[in-house]
Design a protein that fits this description.
- There is one protein chain.
- This protein is of the alpha/beta class.
- The mean pLDDT is about 75.
- Strand 4 and strand 5 (about 140-145) form a beta hairpin.
- The two termini are about 35 Å apart.
- The protein has two domains: about 5-95, no CATH class; about 125-170, no CATH class.
- The strands form two sheets. A three-stranded parallel β-sheet has the order 1-2-3. It has a two-stranded antiparallel ribbon with strand order 4-5.
- Helix content is about 20%, strand content about 15%.
């Protein structure tokens, strides 16, 4: 994989199968884009193409900001047209055997260019003190806007739904 672009299927084996050893009803942490990016980076990949059943540009957003690897999402149709990769056949084989279907196409498969746009914003921290002014003890409360906001791909929840990311799971 060193120096190559990893082509990775979204999800995990048996995504829609309740009897799947991977659960089938909800995804495990190993199926997240972030987990796959980190594995691809560890294997020496220079970028990753994530093959999704459908790609909705209106839902595009940060995937894994700190994974140290470029990533682009392509549809199954694009994978077939651009790479000659039969995604349905690969998924069927993986779902049947629960084994990876890794292979080297033997030719350059993709050139990926990604432009990173950083946006700076002003946010506010919250601090408060409870108790009378002359007390020997006080309760200090603090809060901050978490950098993950509504979670997403970088949240420990693994959910792709925009849910509040409670920072205590990574700050405690």
């Amino acid at each position: 994989m060193k120096g190559k672009v990893a082509v990775v299927l979204d999800g995990e084996p048996g995504d829609d199968d309740p009897k799947s050893p991977f659960d089938g009803r909800r995804r495990t942490p190993h199926s997240t884009v972030r987990a796959k990016l980190l594995l691809a980076r560890e294997a020496g990949a220079v970028a990753m193409l994530l093959v999704k059943k459908t790609v909705d540009p209106s839902k595009a957003g940060p995937v894994a900001q700190d994974a140290g690897l470029m990533v682009a999402a392509i549809s199954e149709g694009a994978a077939k047209a651009l790479l000659g990769f039969d995604v349905a056949k690969a998924r069927a084989g993986i779902d049947k055997t629960y084994a990876p279907a890794s292979k080297d196409p033997g030719r350059p498969a993709a050139k990926v260019e990604i432009e990173v746009l950083r946006q700076r914003r002003t946010v506010f921290n919250v601090a408060g003190v409870m108790g009378p002014a002359d007390a020997k003890e006080a309760v200090v409360l603090g809060a901050h806007y978490d950098h993950l906001g509504f979670g997403g791909a970088n949240s420990l929840s693994g959910s792709e739904e925009p849910l509040i990311h409670n920072g205590a799971d990574d700050n405690a």
